[in-house]
């Protein structure tokens, strides 16, 4: 018996048995699939994939998951990660389940984009940063929807804490020089050298989760452009390799970019809309003062997340 004839003789429950409960399903598929990807420039990276199709036929017992897996595997082997390649994969996934009356297909890819970032001021000093990325793509009938999501770490210094620190420093300066009608430059500089950190504003590592919509005719996914736009808007992206001069420059950047969680969300939405039109922003400040965190969201009117 040949392999093909043996395969044809094996039972196919998903095809031959009806559903015990006649109800359609929105999505059926697999998640957590290990996958090697290549970006548009050929950069390889490991990813985790989720694939699914809808199951509108209430009588269909189930889909054929191996069909989706094989299509995904061929995509990883032959294609680079571009909107056109993702669109074609979704079309093939949907067509592979025409016998189940599927009209929609979904793909989610999770991976980390590793990028080298230069130090703030020290020449030829750089380190690596990892940016978690999620690409969600959905094809329903003739409508393709692509969403690109990136998480970015940054530092945030509380404006209220900064103002209170300045007030405490001012009060201490006034108290120590209360008996002086005039204060010499050297005396003022010496006092500041000893007491300027009497009270310091609280800062915390923070995270922005950014989503933008990508058109199907785009040549590639603008990963670096999205990251660069967001980090420029914030002004305080976390650093990798630093020397003392870079650490001081980072402190100056934090002082020049005091921000509540509300400020960060508004900055990011404004910057992303100016470059990418529509976006969704969620920022989290992992508080160093409180035992809880501060969060804020900002969304372009009409924005809709992709259903999964």
Automatic annotation (TrEMBL):
The record marks 158 as: May be catalytically important. GO terms for molecular function: GTP cyclohydrolase I activity. Transmembrane segments: none annotated. Keywords: Hydrolase. It catalyses: GTP + H2O = 7,8-dihydroneopterin 3'-triphosphate + formate + H(+). Its EC number is 3.5.4.16. The keyword Kinase does not apply. Gene3D superfamilies: Urate Oxidase (3.10.270.10). Pathway: Cofactor biosynthesis; 7,8-dihydroneopterin triphosphate biosynthesis; 7,8-dihydroneopterin triphosphate from GTP: step 1/1. InterPro entries: GTP_cyclohydrolase_FolE2, GTP_cyclohydrolase_FolE2/MptA. Converts GTP to 7,8-dihydroneopterin triphosphate. Belongs to the GTP cyclohydrolase IV family. This is GTP cyclohydrolase FolE2. The lineage of its organism: Bacteria, Pseudomonadati, Pseudomonadota, Betaproteobacteria, Burkholderiales. The gene is folE2.
């Amino acid at each position: 018996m040949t392999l093909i004839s043996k395969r044809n003789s094996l039972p196919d429950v998903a095809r031959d048995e009806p559903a015990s409960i006649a109800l359609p399903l929105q999505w059926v598929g697999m998640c957590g699939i290990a996958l090697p990807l290549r970006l548009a420039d050929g950069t390889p990276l490991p990813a985790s994939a989720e694939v699914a199709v809808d199951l509108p036929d209430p009588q269909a017992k189930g889909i054929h998951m191996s069909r989706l897996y094989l299509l995904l595997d061929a995509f990883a082997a032959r294609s680079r990660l571009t909107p056109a390649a993702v669109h074609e994969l979704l079309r093939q996934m949907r067509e592979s389940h025409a016998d189940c009356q599927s009209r929609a297909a979904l793909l989610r890819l999770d991976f980390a984009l590793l990028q080298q970032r230069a130090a703030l001021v020290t020449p030829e000093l750089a380190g690596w940063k990892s940016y978690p990325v999620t690409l969600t793509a959905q094809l329903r009938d003739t409508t393709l929807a692509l969403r690109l999501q990136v998480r970015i770490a940054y530092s945030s210094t509380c404006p209220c804490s900064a103002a209170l620190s300045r007030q405490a420093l001012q009060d201490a300066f006034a108290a120590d020089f209360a008996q002086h009608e005039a204060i010499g430059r050297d005396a003022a500089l010496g006092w500041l050298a000893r007491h300027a950190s009497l009270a310091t504003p609280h800062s915390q590592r923070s995270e922005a989760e950014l989503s933008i919509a990508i058109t199907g005719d785009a040549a590639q996914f603008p990963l670096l452009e999205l990251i660069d736009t967001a980090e420029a808007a914030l002004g305080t992206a976390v650093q990798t390799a630093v020397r003392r001069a870079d650490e001081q420059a980072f402190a100056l950047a934090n002082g020049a970019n005091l921000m509540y969680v509300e400020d960060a969300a508004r900055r990011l939405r404004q910057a992303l809309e100016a470059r990418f039109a529509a976006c969704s922003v969620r920022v989290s400040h992992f508080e160093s003062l409180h035992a809880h965190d501060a969060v804020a969201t900002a969304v372009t009117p009409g924005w809709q997340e992709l259903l999964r």
